[in-house]
Amino acid sequence: MEFIYRFLKKLIWIYAGMRERISGGWIQKNSSRIREWELMAYAYSKSPIGVIGGLIVFITFILAVIGPMISWEPYWEYKIVINETYRYMPPCLPPSCSGSPLLGTDEWGRDLLAMSLYGVRISFVISIVVVLLGAPLGIILGLIAGYKGGLIDEVIMRLTDIFLAFPGLVLAIAFASILPQRIRGLLESNDLLRAFFAGLFGLREKEYAQIAALISIWLAMVIVWWPGYARIVRGSVLSVREMPFIEAAKLSGLSTWSILFKHILPNVISPILVMMTFDIATATLFAAALSFLGLGPQEPVPELGFIISKAGYWFPESSSHVVIYLGIVLLTMALGWNLLGDALRDVLDPRTRRAIEYRLEKKEKRG
Question: Can you give the residue ranges of every domain in the chain?
Fold first, then answer.
């Protein structure tokens, strides 16, 4: 895995060089930070599980970006209109395919492999954005609650408890049932917004009603996602806020926001980053579950959970290949983030980095 370490180290120094050009002397001032980043890169390169997880995430990212562009079959064409035999055609192996889809077809005779390229884009966008929106909300509330304490802490934590008291899936179902009509009206009246979300999900603008359903899943998940972050961050802040460097920051006259984001947040960010990677995996399956229950987009949008749900009516007689293949796709996407998160947990642990630094120093002395 040495080449991975060299590659990551090169990226670190490219970034350091850019910062040096912007602000002279940056490398010298931040030499210890750069050393920490190099130790993190080395620790990551020594984790086979982390490398495999990172590779899966990277491939998923590439497919999500280019999937709709390289898909050789449009999702809005129904082949069964031409010939009923196209419905749930089984997979075939080369060279006996003779033009038949490699992984078979779905209910409407569409190439399953081509449809999964659209589906990966949708699942990836939803899971990433849910965590990127839900986590900051929880982090800010947790920082404020832990640092301020008193009545503010009580109000924020009781609000958090209210959201945690409801099962997340049930609460998300409630919001996902209410939001689509309101979002649909907004998209219908705003051309720029409609074009933006259509491009984001890799769909046609005329599918704005189904895009509204996707956004409703997105918002419903954000609403139920932030409490976990608020509780974890608040607990971490309680242990950090009494440290001497925080007292020194207060005495120097720094504002509350400066103390929160420049001094406290960097010291509690490691468990948050690990939690975010695990939550992206959970969000991928959570969004597919909502679509499976019929709360996501409908035809012709090829959302993975929805395609599996439709295949359930024909399972296992003719649609088993659909359920198995798309189930493996969702499992692999979630597994990649879980493996990456497991590796980051060790990489971001200062004790692990100190042990690695000690071994490297001994190795350099021997050499």
Answer: 47-366
DSSP state of 263: I
Cα 8 versus chain centre, distance: 21
| Angle made by CA atoms 281, 131, 264, in degrees to the nearest 5 | 120
Model pLDDT for residues 4-45, shown as the tens digit of each residue: 888 888 999 999 989 888 888 888 888 888 888 888 888 888
pTM for the model stands at 0.88
Taking the CB of residue 128, how many other CB atoms lie within 10 A of it?
Answer: 17
Q: What are the tokens at 52?
A: 């495999």
- Residue ranges with strand state E in 60-203: none
User: What is the tens place of the pLDDT at every residue in 156-206?
Assistant: 999 998 888 877 778 788 888 888 888 888 898 899 999 999 999 999 999
Amino acid identity at 196? F
In this prediction, residue 365 carries a pLDDT of 64
Calculate the CA 22 to chain-centre distance. 31
Those residues with Cβ within 8 angstroms of residue 232's Cβ, 6 or more apart along the chain or in another chain: 142, 271, 272, 275
Cα–Cα dist 87/110, whole Å: 8
| Contact call for residues 330 and 304 (beta carbons, < 8 A) | yes
Fold of domain 47-366: MetI-like fold (1.10.3720)
C-alpha span between 253 and 118 (Å, rounded): 52
Per-residue burial over 269-296, b if 16 or more Cβ lie within 10 Å, else e, is ebbbebbbbbbbbbbbbbbbbbbbeebb
The three-class DSSP label of residue 242 is coil
The dihedral formed by the CA atoms of 282, 286, 287 and 290, expressed in degrees to the nearest 10: 180
